[in-house]
Amino acid sequence: MQKSLKTKFLGHTINSPLVLPAGVIGMAFSGFNISIENGAGIVTSKSLTMKPRTGHRGPIIAEFEGGFLNCMGLCNPGIVDGLVEIDQFKKRSNIPVIASVFATSTKDFLKLTKHVNNSKADFLELNLSCPNVFDEFGIPLSASHDEVYKITKAVKQISTLPVITKLSPNVYDIVSIAKAAESAGSDALCMINTVGPGMLIDTKMIKPVLFNKFGGLSGPCVKPIALKLIYQTYSAVNIPILGMGGVTYGEDAIGMLMAGAEVIGVGTAVHYRGIEVFNKINSEIMEFMAENGYASLQEIPKLEKLKM
Amino acid sequence: MQKSLKTKFLGHTINSPLVLPAGVIGMAFSGFNISIENGAGIVTSKSLTMKPRTGHRGPIIAEFEGGFLNCMGLCNPGIVDGLVEIDQFKKRSNIPVIASVFATSTKDFLKLTKHVNNSKADFLELNLSCPNVFDEFGIPLSASHDEVYKITKAVKQISTLPVITKLSPNVYDIVSIAKAAESAGSDALCMINTVGPGMLIDTKMIKPVLFNKFGGLSGPCVKPIALKLIYQTYSAVNIPILGMGGVTYGEDAIGMLMAGAEVIGVGTAVHYRGIEVFNKINSEIMEFMAENGYASLQEIPKLEKLKM
Amino acid sequence: MEKRITLKIAKIVDETRDIKTFTFNHSLGAKPGQFIMLTDFEGGEKPFSISDCSKNEFSITVKRIGDFTTRLFQKCVGDYVSIRGAYGSSFFVSNKKVLLVGGGYAVPTFNFLAKVLLETGADITLINGACTRAEHVFDNSFKNLNINVINTTDDGTLGEAGTAVEIAQKIIAQGKFDFVYASGPELMMKALQNVIGDLEYEFLFERYMKCAVGICGSCTMDPSGIRLCVEGPVLSKRKVEKLTEFGKYHRDASGKRIKF
Amino acid sequence: MEKRITLKIAKIVDETRDIKTFTFNHSLGAKPGQFIMLTDFEGGEKPFSISDCSKNEFSITVKRIGDFTTRLFQKCVGDYVSIRGAYGSSFFVSNKKVLLVGGGYAVPTFNFLAKVLLETGADITLINGACTRAEHVFDNSFKNLNINVINTTDDGTLGEAGTAVEIAQKIIAQGKFDFVYASGPELMMKALQNVIGDLEYEFLFERYMKCAVGICGSCTMDPSGIRLCVEGPVLSKRKVEKLTEFGKYHRDASGKRIKF
Ligand SMILES: Cc1cc2nc3c(=O)[nH]c(=O)nc-3n(C[C@H](O)[C@H](O)[C@H](O)COP(=O)(O)OP(=O)(O)OC[C@H]3O[C@@H](n4cnc5c(N)ncnc54)[C@H](O)[C@@H]3O)c2cc1C
Ligand SMILES: Cc1cc2nc3c(=O)[nH]c(=O)nc-3n(C[C@H](O)[C@H](O)[C@H](O)COP(=O)(O)OP(=O)(O)OC[C@H]3O[C@@H](n4cnc5c(N)ncnc54)[C@H](O)[C@@H]3O)c2cc1C
Ligand SMILES: Cc1cc2nc3c(=O)[nH]c(=O)nc-3n(C[C@H](O)[C@H](O)[C@H](O)COP(=O)(O)O)c2cc1C
Ligand SMILES: Cc1cc2nc3c(=O)[nH]c(=O)nc-3n(C[C@H](O)[C@H](O)[C@H](O)COP(=O)(O)O)c2cc1C
Ligand code: FES
Ligand code: FES
Is pLDDT of A201 > 90? Predict the structure, then answer.
């Protein structure tokens, strides 16, 4: 049975369609290890920036009905040390690694790309969509069709790895943004990043719970938003989609596949179901396939495309 | 104790700060009755349009972790019959009623305003933000600073009632939209309408659960988004805010007040806690006030305003 | 909202030309009088009363009346439909002498009710009314239960000639009953109310329903705002007596009042 | 994530010039070795081990070390702080002869542990180490417990002169123990590991923590990825032996490796 979850993503064969997304557990190579031990098929690094960042002061995470708010603030050891973690992981494993990078200018994205070219990473992911550094950097790049096009295009020209563009859900017209990435040569799309952002209040101390006040939403409550955006995008582009946002059970993963995703990220669910969540969802997908008579992931049908 | 929940909204004295929002229960005058019987301080009609609308075909509602998706599709008996329901309610009650109206052109908004002028309604609410009629009407008016200004301004010139502008959460810059409404003369803001929209999929039948495919999110999961947008808006405008979005417990209502709302809508929570939800939240607010030594709603502090 | 579940149709029985019973293998845990919302995701989600419900099975009995029910009638055993529920209030479970007055496609819910009442030892008389023989349903099911059945058709083609209410009036006059249940056309129930005297009763109402979870306001009853999908569809005498719209008007999908 | 709760400080005790115990009236339901995350919403949310926990009360014992703890030291009884937890793994509850080796602000968690071990009838010896008399904590609390306490200071200003590990080595050599617990500076625990022989043990580790719910990856331990906030902070011998970073490096708030 295990065999039937084998699939391909951008030319790499993977044992499970489940992806550890950027910023979840994967700060160090040991974070990748625990995730693949527990069934992930691809792992993603924390979004790496040119310089190390300590991120926002705490609280940086808060729970509410249906999910989490987080405002990590892109804490990461910087591109150099971050790639050391990836290389150390790749010494002992051939599980594909996505190097996620974040910058605010094309120039820095190009510098980051060169670093990644020289690493053992398998894919390059452009995080154009972090909602938690608004104060510092303003509206995410991924809200602008032109910025997405410009950066993706420039990076594609020098990247030796397949490029994945990570999109924000907080836009009016996801299709135009997705098409910008596609026409700039992006090899795949990753969606969605966190939603909102939102805020929670401590009513006794009369303070925002997050020190940064606002944080992006993830977890079960963002699933319908993710499904909708993935489905719209799938209907409009021809590059594969790494779908994520609230996937917690096998049923959610199947929904993402039907909406158009090729592989599926599982982030916040690590909290709800433990680090074993990847193996659990793998089994649930296999059960679903057995019950409904699908022999491989490819046989699971997609929704009829939206008419545009 | 009951006395302490008395407050004022746009000149009207109300017994509870809790508002039945547009589209929830209030299709007929009997829907207003059951809501005030159970403790609501203000009621809002379903958004009324020039002509009757039967709305979308079902399923028009779907539950997920943390809330509901709905795509009612603005079903309503039309402005004439809708106002009959309001007038019939006002015959026996002096609880304030908000007449919510929806149109797609300034011209129709003006026609609706004239109808409402001739009714017994106490406030006029402009629904510029329904996300569930996208196919029919495109991006909500409330995404455009100019449209919000234009319509509100025109309506204000002829409305004999205080005008409340209802905003969509699905915008890049809520503050500029809110300021457009304020500078056009809007007497108050109502926020937020439903979030997204989102989608759910039936994995056995490989179909979107909602026949309209997409529906707006409401309920507990939208609370952080509502709090953030209300807080940002409160920090930037000087007109009162009717805050809503996921309020389910007294604690949530207190949070909304602290974020800057003057009165608070309770919609989807009617499902989670029964129609008694208004009385339940009223008691919870009073308990909170007693525990923390606030003698009136006005004494409950607001968060320090955001620096802009 | 009870979680949505997508089920294969396990059995279909033709009751009349225009009425079919659909059975599903699912432990619904419903009570008599409750209903489900059913959809095939092809447009429309509609309420149907539960006409039978055991540990692992339940049934609904549907009259073909418009687009949705016509599509439902084309489905075969093994086809999927998606349901949610059971929703709403249920019938009071009496252990005394009770009269069940039903008309048309609304009678089968009494099959489920009668089974539950029999368990408490109630003494049951059912008036099973229809316009004509070809629309009369559930004859055989009721024969298998230990209850007194009086079949009536308006045109006398089956059982006694006359409306269910006329028969009800007669036997109520004989003073034999402690409690009356009714399920059928609203005007039938209105007529019944007029002849029911001082007896306690419960009526099952139908109103346009969209959300079925008490939130959209489609089904509030004037003047008190009873939501028929939550506080109904079964209403007690005390509640029915306060309704100002009973037998007068209902509301359509837009909320517009429609006179009966 | 255990629900966040905002509490008034019920009691503050000065342990040394730089160490205070804060007590809260709240039923935390924690186990020895677990920690809470604490914030005052003024910037920073930090992990603290639980130094006492009864049905309606719990305490943490904090060393003033930087911005956050300095601010905490300025709080008074009645001031609010907000906590979440308890988080993480807890100490194995042995009923045999056990040795507790602690250093500095990390000793008080053994107050909670000792109380729980005593209930199972364990025979407890505690080495309570500090650099100097002025930093030695919880003397009185431990005196009230039925355990053998050996106080040590590096400079001999209180109890025996020498490090806790030197004392531990001596008494372990006498072969008296079944199980060793340690909580203190990582290099102390590393040294202890070298002299502990074949004894079973558990060590309480500290790493930079942000989310405390196993999601952000700040606290994964090389190479296996044990998340110290979930699978730790208490690690068994079997797990400790596999750590490649133990006593070598840890990571700061950016994830950068910092050598000890
Ligand atoms: C509580 C309740 C229980 C019911 N139980 C049964 C049952 O056991 N068997 C059965 O055959 N029918 C039952 N109905 C009625 C059933 O829902 C309608 O017959 C069905 O919706 C018709 O759909 P259609 O598209 O085929 O017809 P349409 O052409 O759409 O409508 C025909 C008529 O059906 C009614 N109707 C349509 N849509 C709805 C709706 N969403 N909610 C309520 N009424 C509607 C209206 O009176 C309408 O005039 C019940 C209705 C309610 C409210
Ligand atoms: C599981 C665990 C239990 C702890 N128990 C206690 C305890 O009972 N009593 C006590 O006084 N201290 C305890 N600590 C350490 C305590 O969290 C730090 O002393 C505190 O965070 C220092 O904050 P600061 O701003 O005052 O100092 P800073 O100047 O910010 O930092 C000083 C040092 O404290 C440590 N530190 C700072 N922030 C964190 C963080 N978010 N997570 C982990 N370490 C941090 C680092 O080693 C840093 O170099 C514990 C730490 C962990 C991981
Ligand atoms: C704690 C945390 C940190 C995150 N950090 C990053 C990041 O550095 N870069 C990025 O592109 N996305 C980041 N994300 C977003 C996730 O990669 C993912 O897009 C999102 O959480 C939705 O998936 P989920 O609901 O399964 O968690 C982060 C999410 C969380 C919860
Ligand atoms: C079933 C339903 C119907 C709604 N219809 C309308 C409407 O007609 N007009 C409108 O302005 N908002 C409408 N809304 C939005 C609500 O008024 C409210 O803004 C939103 O539900 C958030 O509040 P809540 O989380 O408390 O439900 C509707 C919401 C629901 C759930
Ligand atoms: S159907 Fe929506 S309230 Fe009853
Ligand atoms: S502190 Fe985030 S994983 Fe441990």
Answer: yes
